Amino acid sequence: MTTELQNPFELKTDPQSLAADILSALRYRSGKDPTVATPYDWLAASIKAVRDRIIDQWIESTKETYEQDEKRVYYLSLEFLIGRLMRDAFSNMGLMEDMRAALATLGVDIDLIATLEPDAALGNGGLGRLAACFMESMATVGIPAHGYGIRYKNGMFRQEIHDGWQVELPETWLEHGNPWEFERRERAFEIGFGGSVESITDKAGRLERHVWKPQERLLAVAYDTPVVGWRGNRVNTLRLWSGHPVDPILLDAFNAGDHIGALRESNKADALSRVLYPADSSEAGQELRLRQEYFFSAASLQDILQRHISSHGDLSSLPDRVAIHLNDTHPAIAIPELMRLLMDVHGMDFDKAWRLTRGTFAYTNHTLLPEALETWPVQLFERLLPRHMQIIYAINAEFLLEARATGNFNDQQIRRISLIHEEGGRRVRMGNLAFVGSHSVNGVSALHTDLMKETVFADLHRLYPGRINNKTNGITPRRWLFQSNPGLTGLIREAIGDRFMDDAAALKDLDAFADDASFREKFAAVKRANKERLAALTAERLGIRLDPSAMFDIQIKRIHEYKRQLLNIIEAVALYDQIRSHPERDWVPRVKFLGGKAAPSYHNAKLIIKLANDVARVINRDPAVRGLLKVVFMPNYNVSLAEVMIPAADLSEQISTAGMEASGTGNMKFALNGALTIGTLDGANVEIKQCVGDDNIFIFGLAAEEVARHRSQGYEPRQVIERSHELRQALAAISSGVFSPDEPERYRGLIDGLYQHDWFMVAADFDSFAETQRQVDALWRNSPEWHRKAIHNVARVGWFSSDRTIRQYAEEIWGVPV
User: Which residues carry this modification: N6-(pyridoxal phosphate)lysine (predicted)?
Assistant: First the structure.
């Protein structure tokens, strides 16, 4: 029997040994006998049995990094949408089938306990899922890396739908503990807020250094989760910080009867790692979010510098041995924090600290929306982080003088690139700070990168013309093909062998099978089985019965006006009208699935969710439709739900306003699983089109330059709506209360907005979208041709593996050999 004292290198992986270790973990770590063990006990015991084997490689990976003196990558992200880890880790370690057999001997079904593992509530959308894919790929391609974030106790909310409205509830993912993590109390760092800055001078009155004396102090405590690469060749670390008070209870206050006040510091520390993206519509919400961003960035930097000093002693080598990557602007505060540490703690002058800082940091931009490039009120910044505000002013002076010296910047351009926005209240521009403080700034698709140079960072690009580069996003095929779609994975292995499992580019070999009628039939059977699984889940959760032979048309992503769920819903209403008006036509049966969460303070996004559910209620109950069209809003969209929905999709909706989606990764996941894309020339859709071929994707709508031209030349949406009979009727039905008889005016403002300004080009693109959907219908009727095109999609999107993306980051930004 395996015990904690056994040499870990002697752990065996055969089913009999695994079964023994599961029983050992059940008894000695959970204190349970098999006769009384709950399914959650079996889940935890199974994870711990495999975790013991992961630890072996984890320790070896860490030792190799030290012994070989390898450069390390540190990936700072406010989100890591890692999903369930059990299948990921078991599969990457090559233990899935042995664990299945081991548990079967104990009378436990691995598939049943796997569904009990909660999705870690550490992220929201594409940015967080990208970070998770990148962490897995860094371990897979052999890059020594740490991910740094926050260990949210509740994270992003759990979404329920009550009477069609989104309701936000706490996500209690830690209710049964987290058997994957290790608490590292010895890795605790003090974090400060507020207070004052003291200037220290020498005897001659010359400034020597500054000392920040925070008024408020708390601790960041590390929790480590191993991240297993494919075939277990390397295990990296995801280190998440939890907020703890320096003094858990103010005993004097408690004994004096102030029981609430005695716990005030504890509650403030706990709030830092409680909720992802606290609503920032209030001053308190803004302050908490800035506190969170500084909290995890400051703790991470202290950890990084301590590790570097222990290995190399001298911080002068920092850019040569350390690459710190900022995933969007959330950790941009790390730039002045590193400057503070280098100058105030380690005694460097400004010029040397600035050179090391810029050589160490790189920044990924994820948005062209100016409102999404974070800014903070200067007053808030000065109150919470007074020393950092001084450093930001110093950085600003340095680079604005540099810009002036070129002779190429006028006053207006200087104001645009400044780190301080002066109009309508002074604010710190975190996007500009991230750009100026990094040696590399990358976009996440070719189109996005080009638009960065022309829009949000046009002036900074002129000052630093070589800094912006492109790294098109990718996804890990281990999660998004092998695990989520084992039927398709098995079929591909049968056709072309196993090489694609180590090199996704080898999927290209599948191209030859698109014209094989026998293979197409098998491919269709796999898709049918995946659709039956989704239909069963829909019936279980929502009580809606679906026909798996209908086209499954799916749009799942964060609810936002630029992603245009509204366009999809309006087209559903128009199609509903056409089916009722022309029952004699040969309509293609279709199920429109939608899913995603709206930010709690985003009124229009929540209203769009309500509209989707109102439209679904009317259409799904109307006998005149004869089941030809159904609309389904799937609540609480997360990674686990995506793993069911994506393999079942026939049609992938990627319909954002052109020029507004940085990349997207859902588009890649759908194509890899054999769905055809209907989309605009936006984000990575452009590159997907290039890879799969013009004939194997449905493109509609205005291009990015046409959207810009419409906006600049006075686009009149009312005229467009009046010319489109289908659009006008659909908007009239929604606006007049056809779908909201209990509150006829509910959607009047939403629809009036389309008539008045239509910033997201919903009306402008509607006719093109509806016409392209009818082209989709025509192809669907030709089943062999549909499946031929779907197979081409699977075969031609191997380039979108996150392994490829990470190798590009390593070679072109981080300077890490792979």
Answer: 669
Q: Is 563 assigned a catalytic role? A: yes
Q: Is 268 part of the annotated catalytic residue set?
A: no
Q: Residue 259: its pLDDT value, please?
A: 54
Is residue 27 part of the annotated active site? The answer reads no
Residue of 558, 580, 711, 728 marked catalytic: 558
Is residue 660 included in any domain, yes or no? Answer: yes
Structure tokens, 666 = 């859902």
Element (H, E) at 720: helix 717-723
- The answer to whether residues 667 and 689 touch, using CB atoms and an 8 Å cutoff, is no
Sign of the torsion formed by the C-alpha atoms of 606, 607, 612 and 616: positive
- Helix, strand, coil distribution of the chain in percent, nearest 5: 55, 15, 30
For CA atoms 175, 180, 186, 192, give the dihedral sign: negative
Active-site residue (options: 563, 592, 630, 804):
563
User: Do 360 and 495 lie in a common domain?
Assistant: no
In a domain, 303, yes or no: yes
Active-site option among 48, 289, 340, 366: 366
Best CA proximity match to 288, nearest among 329, 250, 243, 249: 243
Q: Which residues of the chain have pLDDT under 70?
A: 1-10, 249-255, 257-263
Span 382-406, pLDDT tens digits:
999 999 999 999 999 999 999 999 9
> Judging by beta carbons within 10 Å of its beta carbon (0-12, 13-18, 19+), is residue 747 exposed, middle or buried?
buried
**Residue 707 domain-assigned (yes or no):** yes
> Is residue 489 annotated as part of the catalytic site, yes or no?
no
**Crossing angle of helices 603-621 and 565-581, rounded to 10°:** 20
Q: Total structural domains in the chain?
A: 2
Q: Looking at 319, 344, 366, which one is the last position of a domain?
A: 366
Show the domain range for 557. Answer: 479-800
Q: Which of these is catalytic: 140, 538, 665, 680? A: 665
669 as an active site residue: the answer is yes
User: Is 557 marked active-site?
Assistant: yes
DSSP of 227-243, one letter per residue?
EEPGGGS-EEEEEEEEE
The pLDDT score that the predictor gives to residue 54 is: 96
Interatomic CA distance for residues 540 and 548, integer angstroms: 15
What's the pLDDT at 253?
A: 63
* Cβ neighbours, 10 Å, residue 67: 8
| pLDDT score, position 5 | 43
Of 320, 351, 366, the residue at which a domain comes to its end is 366
CATH number, position 696 = 3.40.50.2000
Q: Model confidence over 573-598: pLDDT tens digits?
A: 999 999 999 999 999 999 999 999 99
Beta bridge mates, 472: none
Name which of 137, 158, 154, 317 is nearest 236 in CA terms: 137
